[in-house]
Amino acid sequence: MNNMPTVTKNLLIINALVFVVTLIPSFNITQSFGLLFFKSSDFHFYQLLTYMFVHSSKHFTHIFFNMFALWMFGRVMENVWGPRKFLFYFLFCGIGAGLCQEVVQYIHYMMDPISSLPLDTIISVRTENGVEQMTISEYLNHWSTVGASGAVYGILLAFGMSFPNERMFIFPIPVPIKAKWFVIGYAAIEVFSVWASSNDGVAHVAHLGGMLFGLLAILYWRRHPGSDMRFNANRGHEFFNNMKRKFEQRQKPSQPEMRAERGGSKESDMEYNARKQQRQAEVDAILDKIRKSGYDSLTKEEKKRLFDASQER
């Protein structure tokens, strides 16, 4: 935990603490901080933010897999983006997922005959305690959404777009697969689940909504490289400075006097230092380009230069 990025660590802690609170029988945290349908009597706008920190106490696997994915992929993206940009992205995807879920619930509501009745109309509803009498507005309070899944799916998308060719082992698949196929596969499963599993209690549309809003954010940042400077002045400098230090350590000369050129001639220390400084300047420029536009913005020559620099001793 000490080596984990700040935002990722705090998100894990907050979600864990809130989950403990959900175990208290006398306190219905879902009703207060889960995302309710906007036409229900207990809906509040702040729930678009708070719902992603609430997980059902009846399904431990829900919070477990969400937090595992956040730990696995979130810490990578926070190191690349920096804490402020990563936090904004997490909340942006989560809020976007909630909005998508609200839209789908509204469509379902309009297709239901009760939509033509006043919200204070009393109806009979079958619940866990049997048939109960309640107003339509109270009935709509049962349309709730909880969990960080939408934001986590956005992080999965960000990882897949940032490191598309990174190979991953996914149980139970016996062979490694590239991150881009992993993300595409997950998105395809969610699209299929929207149509095939409409009553499974899982907000599949919210998952897709988180990925959609994540895609919009990433595409915007790629088209406007300087627009995210306000998130973090360092913008992951520490992450890339560690890379630079590794390059510099590998490029330390083993012979301080005279060094042989490829053609058999020798160069002085002054010539060698000048060539080394020029080479380091090229590497610094490439790393700076990665910070601004991402690794995918590099040309083939720049990628080769970066690779060659990492192999130099």
For the structure shown, list the relevant keywords.
two-stranded antiparallel ribbon; 12 helices; 313 residues; two-stranded antiparallel sheet; mainly alpha
Describe the structure.
This protein is mainly alpha-helical and 313 residues long. It has helices spanning 6-22, 29-33, 47-50, 60-81, 83-111, 136-140, 149-162, 179-196, 204-223, 237-250, 269-293, 300-311; strands at residues 35-36, 122-127, 130-135, 144-145, 167-168, 177-178, 259-260, 266-267. Mean pLDDT is 81; it is low at 233-237 and 254-264.
Itemize the secondary structure elements and their pairings.
Elements: H1 6-22, H2 29-33, E1 35-36, H3 47-50, H4 60-81, H5 83-111, E2 122-127, E3 130-135, H6 136-140, E4 144-145, H7 149-162, E5 167-168, E6 177-178, H8 179-196, H9 204-223, H10 237-250, E7 259-260, E8 266-267, H11 269-293, H12 300-311
Antiparallel strand pairs: 1-4, 2-3, 5-6, 7-8
Helix pairs in contact: 1-4, 4-5, 4-7, 5-7, 5-9, 7-8, 7-9, 8-9, 10-11, 11-12
Contiguous uncertain segments of 5+ residues: 233-237, 254-264
Q: Widest sheet: strand order?
A: 1-4
- Summing up helix and strand content along with how strands pair, one would put the structural category as mainly alpha
Which radius of gyration do the C-alpha atoms yield? 26 Å
Helix content: 55-70%
Total beta-strand segments? 8
Distance between the termini: 33 Å
* Large-scale geometry: elongated
Order of helices and strands: HHEHHHEEHEHEEHHHEEHH
